[in-house]
Amino acid sequence: MSDLLRDATARHAAGDLDGAERLYRRVLRQQPREANALNLLGVVARQRGQPEAALAPIRQALALRPDSAVFNANLGAALAECGRLPEAVAALRHALATRPDDAVTLRNLGQALCALGQAVDALAPLRRAVALAPDAAEAWLALAHAWRDAGEAAEAAGAAEAALRCAGIAPPLAAQARFLLAALGGPQAVPDRAPADYVRDLFDGFAPRFEAELTGPLGYRTPALLAALLERSGLAQDRARTVLDLGCGTGLSGAALAGFAGRLEGLDLSPRMLAQARRRGLYDALHEADLLEWLPVHPAAFDLVAAADVLNYLGDLGPALRAMATALVPGGIAAFSVEAGEEAPYALGEALRFRHDPGHVEALAAATGFVVLAREAAVLRREKGRDVAGALFVLRR
Ligand SMILES: C[S@@+](CC[C@H](N)C(=O)[O-])C[C@H]1O[C@@H](n2cnc3c(N)ncnc32)[C@H](O)[C@@H]1O
Predict the structure, then answer these.
(1) What does the pLDDT look like over 136-150, one tens digit per residue?
(2) Atom from ligand 1 closest to the CA of residue 291
(3) Which residue among 269, 294, 353 has the greatest number of ligand 1 atoms within 8 angstroms of its CB, and so is best to mutate?
(4) Which of 88, 187, 241, 386 has its CB surrounded by the most CB atoms within 10 Å?
């Protein structure tokens, strides 16, 4: 390794991404065929949350050393982050052919297979990953999710408990493990919301595939249903309002709300969902924040606040309703969907989303000071071949 490349990797290891990138590029000006520097440029791009930018340099590295397990593993991870799952699986398998005991690559393969709906196939690499790295909470959690997707609740709970036993488990992973255990019907109290870090990671990972999957196989239609109910509740599509799309995701809901908005803002926990929303060019402003923290400090800022398929990540809707009321002008409108359940006030399903009893939501809205303009039962989308039943609400402050 040249001295310059050694300096670059030292900066990289110290977390100085800009400095490392500068030096990798200098190495490449001197030695354009230095495959490690190309691959490491890809690592830098991935660490910056720009997996698309990682693909070209990693592929150049692989053109020089096609069978490098390290480069194939890096390519597979980057492709998975880009939502290109079948290609990711191929690259990860290629890497494992020469380095079968790489626990991180095994975990990445298991997670990619799970995301492809092949949870049963994901079990073998994930079990191998935890056998190789029994103190890796992330691998145990990935195995827990795979068992859950495969319909094996007891095995899933066992893996989540193993994650919690890992020495030094990071607090967000511990919160996720406890949330999963509660969703699996464990003895722990059901939390009043999904952990924010879990929701952020879930949607950051889902962002590149979200629209294709939601509007394709899942038949998602909540934004259009909510917009139609707003019109039937007497709101004209006159572009007269300041509107906030809460949990805006990639902007499917913003597209449905745009007709009501003179100014349209979006808010979401997930930076990668927000990056997709930004590309639509639809929003006047986008905010990366937790709705429960952001709304209370923006009083009387909006005429309409809408949340399509968002409140199912919260159990107790009291704080969210109060926060929406604060952010609305007097007479302002709140519109949202919930997944409908019969247990009052709410229950946490195995799919890690909350269901709410619509009667209880209506009573809570009235107790918060809202007038209920409309409440309607609706099929929000499909999941594993079954309709997801929901309820839509339009409230006036
Ligand atoms: C299923 S997506 C729906 C996106 C969009 N509303 C639509 O209809 O396509 C749910 C979104 O809500 C966001 N979300 C969930 N809980 C949130 C919270 N507490 N604060 C902000 N955003 C949240 C997630 O990050 C995700 O992007």
Answers:
(1) 999 999 999 999 999
(2) 20
(3) 269
(4) 88
